[in-house]
């Protein structure tokens, strides 16, 4: 599809779209007129709820089980989304794993899994999407505020994996720019999700690290993703967007 077609909607794939930021993004993109595919691993029921929310907005939706740790499934999800919905205009790389702990405690299995999900899967999805996107496609990756500021110990592996996505984003912007395909990365700060609730035991300390003194919401992150997916962001590429409440300020 062309960028002009995106003004009236297109097809989006949101990895890890069954909950949290991914689910909010899927629904927001549907409100903007996109048909949406979401991937999940264990959250089949939650993914079905997202599909229902998208369909109630009058758009088509499909949930695809795909384990980002499996390279075949990570790349294959793109082709499956195209087969189900007829094309691909927007790829949102949201699926990821967080693993925090002292650097000397991390095992080789820990390193392999985090890099497989947070880096390799994103690269393979982008690679697959690049061969299927037409003029004006959008690639948007979800990073983390910890690439901008690591406020304490324990984040070496996670920050390493997400920092790699900055380089990937900038390189994709250069390589795909002649085709009008943009690539950008969004860095959320502390966001209220079931994995990191705003009323959790570690929440007060996280909130204090932000300039606004609070957690963000999934809809606030989704709004930035939706902007980058839209026609108004056609001249925005290779950029980093902090949605972190001033965590890096």
From TrEMBL:
Transmembrane segments: none
Domain Ketoreductase per the UniProt entry, residue ranges: 10-194
Family indicated by similarity: Belongs to the short-chain dehydrogenases/reductases (SDR) family.
UniProt-listed CDD domains: SDR_c
UniProt-recorded name of the protein: SDR family oxidoreductase
Key word Oxidoreductase present: yes
Any Pfam family matching the protein: adh_short_C2
Keyword field contains Nucleus: no
Keyword set, alphabetical order: Oxidoreductase
């Amino acid at each position: 599809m062309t960028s002009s077609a995106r003004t009236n909607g297109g097809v989006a794939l949101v990895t890890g779209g069954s909950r949290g930021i991914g689910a909010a993004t899927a629904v927001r993109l549907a409100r903007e007129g996109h048909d949406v595919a979401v991937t999940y691993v264990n959250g089949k029921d939650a993914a079905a709820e997202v599909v229902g929310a998208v369909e109630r907005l009058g758009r088509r939706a499909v949930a695809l089980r795909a384990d980002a740790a499996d390279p075949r499934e990570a790349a294959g999800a793109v082709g499956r989304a195209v087969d189900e919905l007829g094309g691909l205009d927007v790829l949102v790389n949201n699926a990821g794993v967080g693993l925090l702990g002292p650097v000397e405690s991390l095992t080789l299995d820990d390193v392999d899994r985090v890099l497989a999900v947070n880096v390799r899967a994103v690269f393979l999805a982008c690679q697959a999407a690049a061969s299927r996107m037409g003029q004006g496609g959008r690639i948007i990756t979800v990073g983390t505020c910890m690439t901008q500021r690591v406020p304490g110990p324990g984040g070496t592996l996670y920050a390493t994996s997400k920092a790699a996505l900055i380089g990937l984003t900038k390189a994709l912007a250069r390589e795909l720019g002649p085709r009008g395909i943009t690539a950008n990365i969004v860095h959320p700060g502390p966001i209220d999700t079931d994995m990191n609730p705003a009323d959790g035991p570690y929440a007060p300390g996280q909130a204090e690290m932000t300039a606004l003194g609070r957690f963000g919401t999934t809809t606030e992150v989704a709004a930035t993703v939706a902007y980058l997916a839209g026609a108004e962001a056609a001249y925005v590429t290779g950029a980093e967007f902090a949605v972190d409440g001033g965590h890096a300020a």
